[in-house]
Amino acid sequence: MKKFNHNHYNPKLKEYARELRTETVSKAEKRIWKGLLSRKQTGERFLRQRPIYNFIVDFFAPEIGLIIEIDGNSHLNKGDYDRYREDKLISLGYTLIRFTEGDVMNNLDVVIEKTRHAIYVLRSNDHVSPIDNSATLLGPPSREEA
């Protein structure tokens, strides 16, 4: 498996990222963290509020370069900025998937399956590739289906 390049870590944002981790975590971020990412149910180590380039991403799996973003109300009028940010992160070699707060709060099972599928794709291919977050994701069956 490819070891992911960590040259894009931005230490200048470290204190701000720490503040975000402790003070401004949304209910959706807490839910996905506790329900999937912190328990290592995916087999990947995820970091919360990680400074990458000039951005702080919600969740980051450093070994495979996967970024998970949870879009809340603060993203409603930031479509152009979010696209710029996503394009920049992808151009640096990262794979990014987005979920809305509503997705996480109301359809956590779908979020979990899409996340597991993205991880499966990234592990299967020895490179980082874009994941179509809107598509029906087919991959290995979940533990419940097997």
The low-confidence parts are 127-146
Percent strand equals: 15-25%
Superfamily (CATH H level) name:
VSR Endonuclease
> What structural category characterises the helix and strand content?
alpha+beta
User: Under the CATH scheme, which architecture would be assigned?
Assistant: 3-Layer(aba) Sandwich
Q: CATH topology, which one?
A: Endonuclease, Chain A
In total, the number of strands is 4
- Give the domain tally: 1
Largest sheet: 4 strands, mixed
Give the proportion of residues in helices.
25-40%
H-E string: HHEEEHEHH
CATH level 1 name: Alpha Beta
Shape: globular
| Oligomeric grouping of the chains | single chain
Gap from first CA to last CA:
25 Å
Number of helical segments with 4 or more residues: 5
Any key phrases for this structure?
146 residues, alpha+beta, Endonuclease, Chain A, four-stranded mixed β-sheet, 5 helices, disordered C terminus
Description of the molecule:
The chain is α+β, with helices and mostly antiparallel strands. It has a single domain, classed as 3-Layer(aba) Sandwich (Endonuclease, Chain A). The protein has helices at residues 14-23, 27-37, 79-91, 101-106, 108-124; strands at residues 47-52, 55-61, 66-71, 95-100. A 4-stranded mixed β-sheet has the order 1-2-3-4, sandwiched between helices. The model is unreliable at 127-146 (pLDDT under 50).
